[in-house]
Specification:
315 residues, 12 helices, globular
């Protein structure tokens, strides 16, 4: 104090600045924990949902070569191509909900989800003929007649799954943008054993064959969708869900443009390996060739689900 009054500047020694976050290893650890909060449930959900298809495929494989080939074409080609388009369109919601949540405009998330439901359900109706007339389409494209008829029958029983997907995908994006991935993981954990039991009951006990395997997927996905909707509507998201709103019908044209552009971009990435299953049907031993390739694709798909889970984390 005296030095300051006498005109001599008071010099205070600088203390060494404390390293933020304890250095690089600590920062990596903290960021990894934040990432895994999203990635862990996302990976689990995708692995479980994909495994449901594999389980149904395995049950179909025990019925015979033709049944396995028919299920693979219906699930991978017909349902898979439509899923790729709906998945791509729903991904637009990831961007919009993420921006709205970051800007603390929480009420917009529910409106965006409702708009996405309207658009995806509308496109699901337009795509429904690919299930209804799948047998005729496959025959017209040169696939074996017997295999096409069997695959067409299975596709018809996958039609409920088609519409369920149009509802489930926006709900997943809605919850993920709020870091509520644990909800999607928990509901999938409930649906997985139900799917195993339903597949056994329909295929083995009730002797419904490959049709029962397709029905089991629709049942389990409907259960998961119902549980997630119950959480959202039942008060699990009070800030972001404020009930159904007429605002969902506003600016639908721009929302369709964004969703369609996103759908085309991602569905092309999703389609390329599914087309391989379809092309295998032109081979001499079509049933065996489709069976072998579909099993290989299923094994590769399990690994792909892990990467898609990390993709959700980066989003």
């Amino acid at each position: 104090m005296e030095s300051h009054q006498s005109g001599v500047p008071l010099i205070v020694p600088e203390l060494p600045e404390k390293k933020r976050g304890g250095g690089l290893p600590q920062q990596v650890w903290e960021e990894s924990k934040k990432l895994w909060e999203v990635v862990g449930p996302a990976v689990f959900m995708r692995l479980a949902l994909y495994s449901m298809n594999v389980i149904s495929q395995a049950f179909a494989g025990h019925l015979g070569d033709r049944e396995l080939a028919a299920f693979s074409i219906a699930n991978t080609v017909i349902s898979g191509l439509n899923f790729g388009f709906l998945f791509g369109m729903a991904s637009a919601l990831e961007t919009l909900c993420g921006q709205a949540y970051g800007a603390k405009q929480y009420h917009k998330l529910g409106i965006y989800m409702q708009r996405s439901w309207l658009i995806l359900l509308g496109f699901a109706v337009l795509l429904a003929p690919t299930y209804i007339f799948s047998a005729q389409l496959l025959v017209a494209l040169g696939q074996p007649a017997d295999l096409s008829r069997e695959a067409g029958l299975v596709s018809m029983y996958m039609l409920p799954l088609h519409f369920t997907t149009a509802i489930l995908l926006p709900v997943n994006e809605f919850l993920q943008s709020q870091l509520k991935n644990w909800v999607t993981a928990a509901t999938t954990a409930v649906g997985f054993p139900v799917h195993v039991a339903a597949t056994w009951l329909l295929v083995r006990y009730l002797q419904l064959g490959v049709v029962g395997a397709a029905m089991a997927i629709s049942v389990s996905w409907s259960l998961i969708t119902g549980l997630q909707l119950a959480y959202v509507v039942g008060g699990g998201c009070p800030e972001t869900w404020r009930g159904f709103s007429a605002l969902a019908f506003v600016d639908l044209k721009d929302f369709v443009k964004l969703s369609a552009a996103s759908g085309v971009m991602l569905c092309l990435e999703n389609w390329y390996y599914r087309v391989l299953i379809f092309l295998t049907g032109y081979m001499k031993n079509a049933e065996l060739a489709v069976d072998a390739l579909s099993i290989c694709m299923s094994l590769a798909g399990w690994e792909l689900m892990i990467h898609l889970g990390f993709l959700a984390g980066t989003g």
